[in-house]
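Two records follow; treat each independently.
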Amino acid sequence: METLTRFEIDLNQAAGADKELRWHIGDTFFGDLDATLIEHGDLDATLRVYRAAGAYRLEFAVTGEVSVPCDRCLEPMRQAIGTRQTRRVACGDMPGDDGDVITVAADDPTLNVAWHLYEVIALAVPIHHVHPEGQCSSDMAELLARHTAQPAAATPAAGAAASPFAALQGLFAPDAAPQPGHHTDNSNT
């Protein structure tokens, strides 16, 4: 877990358009965070911190690759990542994160951005991630083929039972079919 301390930043010292923090992120980062979606990766991340009116704007940029399970065969697959995201940080009495604004103590504006960096990476992974066609595990592809329902044929196969409604097909001749709004009354009144 000591590797995560390198993501602890003093916002006052980091603020400025000419300052950029850089990290290389690998498997140790994901292991130290106990990440479940992403366990392996090879990424480069940068962070710029800007200060304006007592608040901060964090601009993350991440490029590289992560390993995620394929949605089709569950085997690991490489997924390219390239993203830029922004977070807002304010100073206040109670440190916290409400989803829109991260709040740090006004008298000690430090923040460990490791988890925020992980969220930036995780949000860049597409919702649906699968190997290109034909590159999934052949064992899993066979298993899926055996257990996937096949669409029913449009016409019955030779020797198949006829439809129970087949007898009704010739009930009305095309010219004898009742017309909408026209009633035939056979009663003698």
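The next record belongs to a different protein.
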Amino acid sequence: MNAKYGITIVVLLAISSISIWYCLNLSSEVSKLKFQNEELSEKIKALQQTIDKLKSENERLSNYLDEVSVSINLLVKFKNGTERWYNNTLLPIGSTLLNATCKILQPVKYTTYSFGVFVDGILGIENKKPFYWLWWKYENGWKMGETGADAEILKDGGIYAWVYTDTSKPPSPP
């Protein structure tokens, strides 16, 4: 019987030693994880502060853009009826339709006359009798432009269009 008890005691001591070793190692791992968690928490806090600063700067810049620019929507309608919209395009306050056209629809060709600028080509498509580029603006319905594109000062939220138009018949709105 003594041998049985001796083996049991040895097995119990071995199990106890393994359990103590496991608990010590587990405690060490928990301590490491707590330290890593604290480090990550600090990094997350720093990142959140950076994000807050960037949001604030973005808002400041957005407000500044609102003060110094206009946002327009510009439609280009081709001979075959295809339409391309260029929406929410920002341009400096005081920009003209010609400025917007040259910025958005390159290449643009135009001729300057005493009455203003006449657009000869947009996006590589040039006027060819009887088709010419005519511009329109939307204000309670489409209205054909009455001046050269260089004389039309853009309005914030304005909607404008260039239509490649068959001028051998009365033009129809976009």
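Discussion point: The chain has a mean pLDDT of 90. How would you locate this feature using only the token line?
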